[in-house]
Specification:
Blueprint lengths: L3 E7 L2 H10 L3 E3 L5 E7 L2 E7 H7 L14 E5 L3 H13 L3 E9 L2 E7 L5 E7 L6
Parallel strand pairs: 1-4, 5-8
Antiparallel strand pairs: 2-3, 3-4, 6-7, 7-8
């Protein structure tokens, strides 16, 4: 099974590393212009400074405050874990997006990170809870 590496441009790498560290994530392979947030054994989010990211991109880098190119989703084990990660994100400076939702077999909350990238945190619910 291949691993997944998602690349995100960030304005201030130190600020982004602090944010994701405050959420409890570990890092791998940090340099002056990039850091890898370990999501799981098979998934990492690569934080790249905007100039470094632009060097890999074939088109203009989108401004996440103006457009949504992707929504990153973190799957958690239960609603308490969803709420715990959301509270960490908000305490670290994230902006909540929408209201908590419990429908369609899942519990879900959302936030924008410090650079405006949209994240959802969700868990699947047993049929009797959805």
């Amino acid at each position: 099974m291949p691993a997944l590496f998602v690349n995100l441009p960030v304005k201030d790498l130190d600020r982004a590393k602090k944010f994701f560290g405050d959420l409890g994530f570990d890092f791998f392979g940090m340099t002056d212009d990039m850091a890898s947030v370990v999501i799981s054994q098979d998934a990492q989010v690569m934080l790249l400074t905007e100039p470094t990211f632009a060097g890999y991109a074939r088109t203009r880098v989108a401004d996440p405050a103006e457009t949504t190119q992707l929504i990153l989703v973190l799957g958690m084990g239960d609603p308490a874990e969803v709420d715990e990660l959301m509270e960490k994100a908000l305490a670290a400076g994230a902006t909540e997006i929408g209201e908590p939702a419990r429908a369609h077999g899942r519990y879900q909350r959302g936030f924008a990170d410090l650079d405006g990238h949209q994240w959802s945190v969700l868990c699947l619910l047993p049929p009797e809870e959805s």
